[in-house]
Amino acid sequence: MSHDGRATQSDKRRLRREFLAVRNRLTADDVRETAVALARRALELPEVAHARTVAAYVSVGTEPGTLALLDALRARGARVLLPVLLPDDDLDWGEYGGEGSLARVRHGGRMELREPSGPRLGPDAVTGADVVLLPGLAVDGRGLRLGRGGGSYDRVLARLERAGARPALVVLLYDAEVVARVPEEAHDQPVDAVVTPSGVRRFRRGGRA
């Protein structure tokens, strides 16, 4: 595969469409069942189970469900931070206080998101997290993540790097979304682990095949 930037972006767009088409065929029951399994598997990771602060997100539509995990983390006494999308696609953060603390927010013509309704903590709040849960559509054998293409989490990862912060980076996916290889760009960073309903796979941070 060419590493030309335009070719890579085209490859990523095609793959995003393919993975989203599969997700769109899932039922509400499928999503609920996998959310419970994902929460159980994620808590098998010591980094997640013992984290004091976790930067997470609220799943939407047929994304792998996160609410069961958010509630389990809160029940264990962890502080859970959730993103607030800013007009420039960067992320601010707020604290999760249970499902009742979420507000539905529509950003222009894009999808409706559920965001924390409490005080804003600033974009740099993520640098204090022990674990950052990243949304994605796929991850490959090197730990490279295929995101949705909005760039918000590229900014988060760059912010962590500038701050010298080294939280565990974890992606939550369906089993079929762990693939051999995804298109790679120079700024892409490998994650530490992927959690699926059937288990956990770890990667060597910084290692590429």
UniProtKB/TrEMBL annotation:
It is an enzyme of class 6 (ligase). Signal peptide: none annotated. Pfam families: 5-FTHF_cyc-lig. Belongs to the 5-formyltetrahydrofolate cyclo-ligase family. It catalyses: (6S)-5-formyl-5,6,7,8-tetrahydrofolate + ATP = (6R)-5,10-methenyltetrahydrofolate + ADP + phosphate. The keyword Metal-binding applies. Keywords: ATP-binding, Magnesium, Metal-binding, Nucleotide-binding. This is 5-formyltetrahydrofolate cyclo-ligase. It comes from Streptomyces leeuwenhoekii. Its EC number is 6.3.3.2. Its cofactor is Mg(2+). Gene3D superfamilies: NagB/RpiA/CoA transferase-like. It comes from the Bacteria.
